Amino acid sequence: MQAPEQKERAARTFGKVGPSVGGSEVTLSAKLKEGQMAKTTKTQSKKKPLTKREQLIQLLDKAEGATVNEMSEALYWLPHTVRAALTRVRAGDRKLEKLPPEEGGRYARYRLEKA
C-alpha cells in the first residue's frame, strides 16, 4: 500500500497537478484551460551557435595552433574530414601555417597566418 505522499507524487508525475480535494482531481490540462498556470516565455538568444567551419577557424586562430587529432576531437569529425576542411580553408581567403611538432610531440600543428 502506498503512503499518501507517494500517491501525490505519482499523481503529479502522470499529469495531475494538485492532490484530490473533495474527490475531484485537478489535472494539468484543466489548469491550462483555466489560465491558472504561470506563463513562461522563452528567452530567445540572438546569438546563433557557431558553425563547424567557424569552430575550426577558432581552433586555428590560437597562437599554438592545433593538430589534426585535436581538431578531430573538438569537432567530432574523422581525421580525413578535418584535412578536407583545411583544404577548403586554404582555398578561401585564408592562409595556413604548418608548424613543426611540439617538443617531444609527433604531429604537425596548423594555425592561421597572422596578417
Tell me what you see in this structure.
The protein has two domains: 4-34, no CATH class; 52-112, Arc Repressor Mutant, subunit A (Orthogonal Bundle), CATH 1.10.10.10. It is mostly helical and 115 residues long. The chain has a three-stranded antiparallel β-sheet. Helix content is 41%, strand content 9%. Helix 4 packs across helix 5 (79-91). 7% of the residues are buried. Pfam families: DUF3489.
Describe the SSE topology:
Layout: H1 4-13, H2 28-34, H3 52-60, E1 66-67, H4 68-75, H5 79-91, E2 96-99, E3 109-112
Antiparallel strand pairs: 1-3, 2-3
What tags apply to this protein structure?
single chain, 115 residues, mainly alpha, Arc Repressor Mutant, subunit A, 2 domains, 3-stranded antiparallel β-sheet, 5 helices, 3 strands, 41% helix, elongated, DUF3489, DUF3489 domain-containing protein
Report the sheet-strand fraction.
5-15%
Classified in CATH, the superfamily of the largest domain is: Winged helix-like DNA-binding domain superfamily/Winged helix DNA-binding domain
Unreliable stretches (pLDDT < 50, length at least 5) are none
* Mean pLDDT over the full residue set: 81
Helices and strands: which structural class? Answer: mainly alpha
CATH level-3 fold name of the largest domain: Arc Repressor Mutant, subunit A
- End-to-end CA span: 75 Å
Q: What form results from the Cα inertia axes?
A: elongated
**What would you report as the Rg, rounded to the nearest angstrom?**
28 Å
Number of strands: 3
Number of helical segments with 4 or more residues: 5
Which CATH C-level class of the largest domain is it?
Mainly Alpha
Biggest β-sheet: strands ordered side by side in the sheet: 1-3-2
Q: List the quaternary state of the chains.
A: single chain
Q: What is the annotated CATH architecture of the largest domain?
A: Orthogonal Bundle
Total domains, how many?
2
SSE string: HHHEHHEE
Helix fraction bin:
40-55%
Largest sheet properties: 3 strands, antiparallel
Organism: Henriciella barbarensis
Pfam families: DUF3489
Protein name: DUF3489 domain-containing protein
Region (Disordered): 1-25
